[in-house]
Write a structure and sequence with these properties.
By secondary structure, the chain is an all-alpha fold. 56% of the residues lie in helices and 0% in strands. The N and C termini lie far apart (32 Å).
Length: 142
């Protein structure tokens, strides 16, 4: 069980007068799955975070408590794809160097870059911090 509780999810849901079932329907997951995310029992997959940010018109960083301003939804000019390769190159790093910083193999990191494996949220947060960008930028939303 994950200790961190996603307090903002509950606050946003209640502020919008929505039930867990309604949010689940809106982002195409079950009420039970949403309940696990909201209570912190499961880590929220990045694709679900993006759908929640779109639903509420906020940034992913705001949802996760990394930003205190309920920023409006970032412009949709981005590609909507993870920007791992571009950010890595901007920082003059090889895949092996980025993988070492994340504590994973270079072959696994390459799969994250190519979109063949979903990037776990803790690693996404670590990369965003490493590159000094928002999770929204990392996800190609801005």
């Amino acid at each position: 069980m994950y200790v961190e509780r996603y307090r903002r999810l509950r606050d946003l849901r209640e502020d919008h007068d929505l039930t867990q079932a309604q949010v689940g329907d809106a982002i195409n997951i079950t009420q039970r799955a949403y309940s696990y995310y909201e209570s912190g029992q499961h880590i929220i997959p990045p694709e679900v975070l993006l759908r929640l940010a779109d639903l509420y018109g906020v940034s992913v960083d705001y949802l996760l408590g990394r930003d205190e301003t309920p920023a409006a939804q970032p412009p949709r000019g981005g590609s909507g794809r993870l920007q791992l390769a571009a950010l890595r190159r901007e920082h003059g790093m090889t895949q092996a160097q980025a993988a070492a910083l994340l504590g994973c193999s270079a072959s696994l990191y390459a799969k994250y870059e190519r979109g063949e494996r979903p990037l776990p949220l803790p690693l996404a947060v670590k990369l965003a911090d490493l590159y000094g960008v928002t999770l929204d930028r990392l996800a190609g939303r801005e």
